[in-house]
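Bump. Still looking for Carbohydrate ABC transporter permease structure tokens.
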Amino acid sequence: MAVDSLEKPAVIPTTPPAPTVRKVKRRKRGVSGWVVLALVAGVGLLMLFPFWIAVINAFKPAPDYIANGPVSLPTELDFSALVDFWGGVDFNRKLLNSVVISGSVALIAVALSLLSAFAIGIGRIRGRVWILALFMLAFTIPQEALVYPLFVLTRDLGLYDTMTGVIVILAVLQSAFGTYMLSSVLGTFPPEVLEAARLDGASRFQVLRHVVLPLTRPTMAVLMTFFFIWTWNDFFLPLVLLPSADNQTVSVALGALSGQYTSDPTALAAASLAGILPALVFFLLFQRTLMRGVNLGAVK
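Sorry for the wait, here they are.
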């Protein structure tokens, strides 16, 4: 019995502890994050590929394009295609027309959207749901269904082949979307702020100017950026309503010249690059404002 009592207890082998659930989740989350990042990077490269092709071919000599193809880098920089296109189509005039039309449409459409949304979202007019549905219906109607009535209207009012007619039409059409977007923002506006302003004796215009406008400025900046880019890229209505060369926009000029330069791919690439760069520069300049407005709307 003494010997038995002195025997050492058996040692049970132990296995290393399994990783915790939190570590497994972190590992899975890290892998999925890298997969999403790789997919986004791939999509971004695919979207930038046409722009890259336009850049390298716009400054490539025609013999170099024929010998090495469209994907190869140029052996020397040749600005002749870009200079010939710029001077041949009076691109300075087309660029000025697009800037004037796009900027005017963006400003007028945002102003109309703010006034309409203030009446619907804060004024609480009757039938606001049906009015918003009407605005959305107007925004979703294709331009092909509106082109003939708009053509007759501008012709009878003496606005055909004028930039004023196109500015008014596009501003009204795009303000439908802006009204819907701003109405959803102003519909959730804190009533305590409005009531405090009214108790202080502020009129409707003062409430709009000193209370509503500062708080909705980021959203309006987002709308203005969208309206400018949409108008810049618009092709159909300017093509129909601006037939003369002096009033044409950049998109219409590029569309009219695409058939002429089909046999000269370097000139076509130069024309495409000249049409893309202004809108890209505008987007890069207002990118910070755009992201600030989007983030502020998400936080609200």
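Residues 94 and 249 are 5 Å apart (CA to CA).

Edit: fixed formatting.
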